[in-house]
Amino acid sequence: MQITENILLLNGAGIDSNVYCIDNELLVDTGTGAFIEETLEQMNRFGVDKNNIKKIVLTHEHFDHIGAASEMKKKLGANLFVCEDAELNNGTSLSDLFDEDLDVPDVDGYFSEGDEINTSSYSFKVLHTPGHSPGSICLWDKQKGVLVSGDLIFRDGFGRVDIPGGDADKIKESLRRVKELGDINVLLPGHGTPASNKNIYDDGAIENILSEIE
Known about the structure:
By secondary structure, the chain is of the alpha/beta class.
């Protein structure tokens, strides 16, 4: 699905996370791996030059977002990046909840609060937003109002904290940060449908979910 001119949603199937391809340069999250071939086929259908994708960023350490990271890294020849507070292993990925074993990926670099991730069209600032997990991040392009929110915030709810690594107090702080960012024009969540203030069918979805943050 084409979200903006330069952002593709490679739809998550089943329990898979959403996978976003930005500027044919950056891949955000990878899904579990159960549908990796379908994800690659979607890229083909959209005319994505997979050789041009040099960077994979994981929004956090849970299996539904990182299960395919090792294989995707190999297939694309891309480097893999996560938050410095994210540990990638079977325990932290909660892979047992999915009845799976994680093929632990090699990490090429770590992001911390305030780092920038740039593509041809976007300049994202890394926001460390723990609460759903210790290593959760959001990516925020202030100029364009684009927020990649991982599992912190969706168009109809917020991330779970009733799982190992979840923290109710921290997610409240993270949500308040998001509410204070300013105008969010495009919301790209880790699951479910993205929202845009230019889409008349969203009917104020971004404003509605932000209004629920205390």
